Amino acid sequence: MKSFPFYIARRYLFAKKSTNAINVISAISCIGVAVATMALVVTLSVFNGFHDMVATFFTSFDPQLKIVPAEGKTAPSDDPLLTEVRKVPELDVITECMEDYALAIYGDKQAMVTVKGVEDNFAELTHITDILYGDGKFCLQAANLQYGTIGIRLAETLGTGARWNGYLKIYAPRREGQLDMGNPTEGFVEDSLISPGVVFAVRQGKYDKGHIITPITFARNLFGQDGRLSSLELRVKPGSDLDAVKRKIKKIVGKQYLVQDRFEQQEDTYKIMKIEKFIAYIFLTFILMVACFNIIGSLSMLMIEKKDDVVTLRNLGASNKQITRIFLFEGRMISTIGAILGIAIGLLLCWIQQTFGVVALGESSGQFVVNAYPVSVHPSDIILIFITVIAVGWLAVWYPVRYFAQRLIGE
Is residue 181's pLDDT more than 70? Predict the structure, then answer.
């Protein structure tokens, strides 16, 4: 008897009604749920696509793990805790970094920059060599020459190009002593860099517009931070569990240092993207709720048409609860079919976009980082969408069906 309401509901859903309008409204209800579901699948997948695309940009510059002081900007490079971290067997590349703000001047142009001093193994730590442009090669120092690799947009701002003539002058405030207003230039440390003949392009303004990669000795002398570092950047050995290594390092450094993976290093960027995705999910869920009102209209008309059937079912021994469940099952089947159809169509559209790039970002090729909207389908999102559609559809029909059924039965 448990399947009796479902059996009757299934017959009502697929059988031809005496009033054709009920069939039309039922079809419209199913299509409305399917369209809203499809929109959820496609929209969330596009947000995932942008998220994954941005992540690939950062992997060329950001280390897998980064240790920074929990308080203050720098820490001693010979800190016993950091020495202990260096002994972790899963680590493949370890680089000390000194990073701070400075003023760059080339000719009559200037810009505020972030000087990132790194060790010679920086190219092994990151994929910096994959994002270089120019006729030179990545180099930090040779003999007493110190090279500076700048971002592509910073090169445009300063007018240096990939290879500049002469020296790029860098100024940073002195950490010790008082500023003499009679001779303010004495309050700054001045140093200079020559060009390696390349620039890097992460395709993120944060880096391309204001970063200069230099030898760590240059940065330490510039900022007066001999023997100190602003971060210890790490690369784990291939095949190692990154999360397990991160937990092990956090246990070693305790509360004195923060251990950040790539997502935590770009927390603000990813947090904004997650908020945008969540807001899109909420808005589309409201649209889904509106689509479910069509189901209520379809069910109310069906209940009026099947008034005589209700009397017959009661005479055959069906309880009021079973009769109510018939129409509840009817509404739930409409929302379930709509959900399945919407997910299937949404996945098909995502596959078409991934394969053929039908929806372009710009009319001319190369105008954007990618020519078409990136799409990435995450199984967790599909599960969330299915649960959302079923929950909204079932809740939308619960009270109206019970209300109309009680009135119908009462008559």
Answer: no
CB atoms within 10 A of CB 20: 9
User: How many CB atoms within 10 Å of residue 108?
Assistant: 6
Looking from the CA of 147 toward its CB, the CA atoms found within 13 Å total 18
Indicate the length of the chain as a whole number: 411
Structure tokens at 130: 């994959």
Q: Is the dihedral of CA 335, 340, 342, 343 positive or negative?
A: positive
The partner residues of 115 in beta bridges, in order of sequence, read 100, 212
Of all residues in the chain, the percent with pLDDT exceeding 90 is: 60
Amino acid identity of residue 31, one-letter, is: I
- Are the CB atoms for 235 and 125 separated by under 8 Å? yes
Closest among 127, 23, 29, 20 to 389, alpha carbons compared: 29
Cβ atoms < 10 Å from Cβ of 88 = 15
- Backbone phi and psi for residue 319, each to the nearest 5 degrees, phi listed first: -80, 165
Question: pLDDT (tens digit, 9 = 90+) per residue, 232-245?
Answer: 999 999 999 999 99
Residue 332 CA neighbour count, 13 Å, CB half: 16
Q: Is residue 120 helix, strand or coil?
A: coil
